[in-house]
Amino acid sequence: MSKRVQVIGAHSADFVWRAGGAVAKAVENGGEAEVIALSYGERGESGQLWKEEGQTIENVKKIRHGEAERAAAALGASFRCLDLGDYPLQIDGDALMQIADSIREFAPEVLITHTDTDPFNPDHPVAYAAVDRARGLAAGAGVSSAFPTIKPPALFLFEPHQPELCNFMPTVFVDITPVIEKKRAAMAEMKAQQYLQTYYAQRAEQRGNHARRASGNQDVQFAEAFQRVIPQVVTEL
After folding, report:
1. CATH no. for residue 23?
2. b/e for 62-82, b at 16 or more Cβ within 10 A?
């Protein structure tokens, strides 16, 4: 089934490492995907770029935008950044409404973001809290007749870098074997964080092993792990 998938990350590269395969798979199945970054990660996640003499914040943002846009295109998704600043990422009332409006406008069936805990990255829990709250607003929490609302999207959390320390428990594995080359191409665009490419390529193999054990499907070679937040409603088990 084709679906509308929206990924909202704290920084411009977050979607690539943790949900790039799921995005590519959704698009390949006839769906539509949008990636939103709350910041470019220009201060805390662009170490390679800051080694260049005379580097500036605006130039780092420009480079990071290009990387993310090309990576999203490799997956078949669109990309935009709200440019709210990083380290610290801070979400005021206006920013919260920007996020809620973005969710309302795209009306995703699947919404993906960070876990609510990350002891090593203070921006990630802030992003989770903002997206979770914005999702509620977009879906009609409050007096729904006073503003447009959408059908509540399923909320998933993508796998953090240190899952055991971030309250992450995988409940869904997505088989990304057919689109692994698209994910690799997207990761290759993130030259400001090249060191993560090997790590997440290995993680896809590890999760593929887990998915094979969980499903018995020996054709799964690569997978991504997600945690479902909102209960799934079905007519039977």
Report:
1. 3.40.50.10320
2. ebbbebbbebbebbbbebebb
